[in-house]
Design a protein that fits this description.
By secondary structure, this protein is α+β, with helices and mostly antiparallel strands. The protein has helices at about 5, 80-90, 180-190, 215-225, 230-235, and strands at about 1-5, 10-15, 20-30, 35-40, 50-55, 60, 65-70, 75, 95-100, 105-115, 120-130, 130-135, 140-145, 145-150, 200, 205-210. Helices cover about 20% and strands about 35% of the residues. α3 packs across α4 (about 215-225) and α4 crosses α5.
Length: about 240
């Protein structure tokens, strides 16, 4: 599972040639499938045409780079009508408003989570009034240009932790395994002793953890109490 922020700006490495062929500029969303279908490329030598990589051509998405088999994975969007149409639709998920089918505004999307194996959007981090929650993508009816339309019962699907998106129970609709303490202990194990490379704020914009500080178990438990958005912030802003 990867957030959009974890993919944007990553160097793209060709395994066969052993060279960097650009960086990830944007994620192209397919609203019909609810997935990231293409990654556009930033490259100083490609100013005239828009180049991209089909998500299915991605070999792996690591902390420091995204890899493809060869430079042959790169396509010119102007030569692929379907890809070009998706780019022109300009579907965005981050910053989109979340509204139920009956017109109730729930909040706005702060970030979204993608299955790195197939590009499917599996959930979103959304801000609702003074709190942040995780909304599974099963509740989304429409991925629009500026608005996500969700089912009326979407609030009943809210999760506290993005890791719960990986533990959906397909045998019973709307049921998710809550790993509770096991998940929290795993978060502590992964983050304890790591140094922050930038400030991390709470949902109100107050700085909770400052750049350069080393995370203690107490810090991580405090972040768990504040909400999933802070935990995502810690995970994304620590040294390797």
């Amino acid at each position: 599972m990867r957030t959009s922020a974890q993919m944007l700006g990553l160097p793209i490495i060709s395994i066969s040639e052993g060279l960097e062929i650009g960086t990830v500029k944007s994620l192209v969303i397919n609203p019909e499938k609810g997935s990231v279908d293409f990654l556009t490329i930033e490259h100083e030598d490609w100013q005239v045409s828009v180049k991209a990589i089909p998500f299915k051509k991605v070999i792996g998405i690591g902390e420091y780079a995204l890899t493809v088999d060869s430079e042959g994975a790169v396509i010119d969007l102007n030569e692929i009508p379907i890809a070009n149409q998706l780019v022109n639709k300009k579907i965005k998920i981050t910053d989109a408003r979340v509204m139920t089918r009956k017109g109730e505004l729930l909040g706005s999307v702060l970030e979204f989570f993608t299955d790195e194996e197939n590009g499917h959007v599996i959930g979103m981090l959304i801000k609702i009034k003074d709190k942040e929650v995780i909304l599974p993508s099963e509740t989304v009816l429409t991925f629009g240009k500026d608005i996500l339309i969700v089912t009326e019962d979407a609030p009943s699907y809210f999760l506290e932790n993005p890791n719960q998106l990986l533990n959906s129970d397909d045998g019973e609709e709307g049921t998710f395994f809550d790993e509770g303490m096991e998940i929290k202990n795993k978060q502590i194990e992964l983050l304890k002793g790591k140094k922050l490379i930038r400030n991390v704020e709470d949902p109100s914009g107050n700085v909770l953890f400052t750049e350069g500080s080393v995370l203690s178990e107490e810090d991580i438990r405090h972040a768990q109490e504040v909400g999933p958005g802070v935990l995502v912030g810690l995970s994304m802003n620590v040294e390797a």
